[in-house]
Amino acid sequence: MNPLLEGGDPTPFAAVRPEHVKPAIVELLAAAEAALEKAVSPAVAADWDALALVLDVPVERLFRAWSHVNHLQNVVNTPELRAAHGECLPLVIDFSTRLNADARLYARYKAIAASPAAGSLQPAQRKALSDALRDFVLGGAELQGPQRERYADIQDRAGALSQKFGENVLDATDAFTLDVPASRLAGVPEDVVAAAREAAAAAGAEGCRLTLRAPCYTPVMQFANDRALREQLFRAWATRASELGDATRDNGPLMAELLALRAEEAALLGYPTYAHAALVPKMARTPDEVLAFVRDLARRARPFAERELAELRAFAAAELGIADLQAWDRAYASEKLKERRFAFSAQEVKSYFTEPRVLQGLFRLVETLFGVAIRAEPAPVWHDSVRHYRIFRGERPVASFYLDPYARTGKQGGAWMDDSRSRWKRPEGGLQLPVAHLVCNFAPPVGGRPALLTHDDLITLFHEFGHGLHHMLTQVDERAVAGIAGVEGDAVELPSQFMENFCWEWDVLQRLTAHVDTGEPLPRALYDRMLAARHFQSGLSLLRQCEFALFDMRLHTEPAAASRPQAVAEEVNAEIQPVAAPPFLRYPHTFTHIFDGGYAAGYYGYAWAEVLSADAFGAFEEAGIFDPATGARFREQILEVGGSRPALESFRAFRGRDPSLDAMLRHQGLA
To answer: What is the rounded distance in angstroms from the CA atom of residue 567 to the CA atom of residue 571?
Structure first.
């Protein structure tokens, strides 16, 4: 039995082995190929339901199995799994490219759209049909001859380059270790030191083992008094996967080739730049509109950022003896300044955010607002720290999700939500319920105590859960527009960033905090100091977001950018930031969002969607944070409709008007 060929619920992840991958994918590809040929034959009418039954069922089965392989590649990466994935990747890309560009299938969908029966399609089906026609054009269905062949070659090569980019980042991150005596970790929180001791002992080394994974790297940069140690770690972090490190993992050539391929792809499709093509399925209309939006935000944030940087430099010189504030000092000096100004530290707050209590509070909040119940259920998992939950409306199950909370070797850094399976009223009968993967990289438990989350970790968890709710609470039965599917790329962050706002509400925090030693909830006085510090360095934070967004958009609009991404990064830094980046900083080489994560010419979407999310949260501020009527309206008008209608229509249905920038600026402390 091959677990990747089983279609049951839950997926038998624990049984999947690298040797299962190729046989399963080859078998599923053959079935999908046969289905495509049948779907475009005279035996199948140009009818929405008929095509779905013949083609969509085997194609969905193929891509669902492939999504499981991709997921495992990201969370339990091994040489054997990587090899199996790499062997099948070109096969899947080739089929996907041909499917999306099949002129015969495109003609069938055009015939459906032109037929009298199109008027009887459900609204979600009409939206899915409209999206499909658009995507056929973007997929090269109207190309002919050599152009068509070249387009397919580009997809194949770009897929391989993106995979290699991500692998290089993971390998460069995992390759670095630094063993130091505990004395060099003065100032670092004890739980972080204890974890470093355990890591060293497990490796048979003396002292404490430091890595570049976030649960180690971030607190060391934030708290370590040893300036030389901070510089050593920062340089290792800043030069990962670049020409300044291991040459076999240098992502520079991959970036250049990817950018050139994207520009060529856009030209084949008739667009002046890749950004123009990428914006077709988004809310923003043109690259110029995006550039103006990003630069306007940067202009508004710049005066705040300049004041914040001046304050930090003055404090570092006067109080810390750091006259020449460097990049590796900023997190440390910022934490000290925040402690001085607001009389609390991130470590003090962290003691109240025990993982069990946080999850309990998060689940109760979601249950209260959206009328659901969340229950833990056993399921086969890919790592023993992963948990499985099911969501109910009354006694009716509506979705399930896996939570993979902790950082570990072989797991990609960062945090994300994957749609393991989508809601779908299957053509052959039955309702398929959605399944999500919620993946974070928190510090695991140490010494028999529960895992502790920083407030930033809390925000990350709520963010990814917002994505999960968008995917899981949909009531749309058409898979192509259910949940996050079909949502404009620059609006998809609305529910995730909306959920972040609850992390600052007193009534919410009371319900999800319990001190690790005493069990007491977060004290009001500490909360007040946290709230006062909410906008600490918000100008610098927003400028960083604008810097990434502008870099991304320039890369994908300027013809010469492919040969000079590092130079573009330095030019953007000079335009946006009040201080120059270190000359050795190579953040483009690890910018997986745009080179291996689907955000190419779309990183601006985080700021764009925050306009929507902040304004949407304003409705809860007006009606009451736990107001069930407002929660029901958000669920019905935003979460349940998914991509079945334009995001702006969903926002208007919830808020009763167009979005306003005011709420975002207020939430950022920049009003």
So the answer is: 6
Domain ranges of the chain: 3-142, 176-240
**Integer Cα distance of 60 and 56 in angstroms:** 6
**Predicted pLDDT at 7:** 84
pTM attached to this predicted model? 0.95
Instruction: Encode burial over 163-192: b for 16+ CB neighbours within 10 A, e otherwise.
Output: bbbbbbbbbbbbebebebeeebbebbbebb
Query: Over 80: is that where the pLDDT of 671 sits?
Result: no
Residues pairing with 437 in the sheet: 402, 418
Q: What is the CATH number of domain 3-142?
A: 1.20.1050
524-532 helix and 327-342 helix, angle to the nearest 10 degrees? 130
Q: Apex CA 536: angle with CA 534 and CA 540, to 5°?
A: 125
- Given the residues 60, 308, 355, 464, the one annotated as active site: 464
CA–CA distance, 195 with 219 (Å, rounded to integer): 12
Closest by CA position to 275, among listed 597, 557, 607: 557
Q: Which band of pLDDT confidence, cut at 50, 70 and 90, is reported for residue 301?
A: very high
Q: Give dist(CA 611, CA 294) in Å, integer.
A: 12
- Residue 464 annotated to the active site: yes
pLDDT of residue 218: 97
pLDDT tens per residue across span 203-237: 999 999 999 999 999 999 999 999 999 999 999 99
